[in-house]
Amino acid sequence: MLSPQEALDRAQDLVERARKAGADAADAVFGASSSEGIQVRLGNLEDVERSESEHISLRVFLGRRSASIGSSDLSPQALDELAARALAMAGAAPEDAFAGLAPEELLTRGPWPELDLSDPAEPSPHDLRAAAREAEEAARAVAGVTNSDGATASAGSGVFALATSHGFSGAYGSTSHSLGASIVAGEGAAKQRDYAARSAHHRADLPLPAEIGELAARRAVARLNPGRMASGPMPVVFDPRVGGSLIGNLIGAISGNAIARRSSFLLGKLEDQIFAPGTVLVEEPHRPRGLRSRPFDGEGLPTRARNLVEDGRLTGWLLDSASARQLGLAPTGHAARGGGGAPGVSVGNLHLQPGTATPAELMADIEDGVYITELIGSGVNPVTGDYSRGASGFRIVGGEIAGPVAEFTVAGNLLAMFARLTAANDLEWHRATNVPTLRVDGMTIAGD
């Protein structure tokens, strides 16, 4: 794997080639990754995967015309051809009044915070296989488990570099480790499947493999013999592993592109009371070992901690430079770069601050409701906020978790859902978006 400095050298070299070829401005993103994964099923080695990739992308500007292009061929001749093709594409592109690099005066120059994203320990294939086997063995030892879709263990590393023609250069590396298991319980047509998985930058931050396996098995067994839900309005409680998707809907709605295109259900609601008073949604892009930690954004602007929701009110939009210009605002350091193309928008590590009630206390007054552990499909209208998704989970009867239920739909409108959302106190910190157990009153269930 290349070092961050070697990755940065490649990005800077391509920017220089583009400038020599006639670009008024340019930026280049270089990314490289390598990973190895082992899958074990029923005690036997099922699959071994090894991947390595390098990719560089170039964005050039001719006045207000721009074009983006990428390649995995990094030879000098290929890079010269890449720059020439990008300029030809830009010459044929329409003008865009909002195109351009990030404002030079806003670029971050470092030094950047130490994020501790790289683990020097590199597990061997034998280590990965042993971890996957341990997870599956623990799962298969749980009563009620009848089969396995397999357990996996993987590790990888990557590097990201960004260079611009107006003075930004930066790069950083990271590692990744993950464990997962997918387990089957029951027999015949009554079979149920569930899983458990965790990812981290450092292997030491993962649970023991046996814990992953046992959790997947308990979840699968708990789903056996599901009943059906009656239709009607009722309180809905979201397990933390699915509750984060509600925050994902919010993030999509406050992205600059959605606001600039007027395609968001939150349009015109900046600083409005969206959630209950006291609700706080925190972004922490500099959290050590955070899954979405990064020292700078995809345009070379600084990332910083901020409250996206403060006392239940939206505090601002998530803006890259293009959407900021379109809205007449300043970019917010949320630009993201992938394998090519113009920047998109992404956030750092998120968490919804917990409430004071335990999950049991949160459900104690629910006579008839549902606890959701799985959401299916993506039936969310980003323009209206209308929400409808397939779901499964458990009934809540008399304030207690009752038997499993499946094959029902949960529906509402995100504005109303956010306004009625209440958080429990069981926040955990191992996801990119971390939320406690969430309760939303007044949703509509479509069942039998």
Automatic annotation (TrEMBL):
Residues 26-90 form the Metalloprotease TldD/E N-terminal domain. Belongs to the peptidase U62 family. Pfam families: PmbA_TldD_1st, PmbA_TldD_2nd, PmbA_TldD_3rd. Residues 119-224 form the Metalloprotease TldD/E central domain. This is Modulator protein. SUPFAM superfamilies: Putative modulator of DNA gyrase, PmbA/TldD. Transmembrane segments: none annotated. GO terms for biological process: proteolysis. One of its GO terms (molecular function) is metallopeptidase activity. Residues 231-447 form the Metalloprotease TldD/E C-terminal domain. GO terms for cellular component: cytosol.
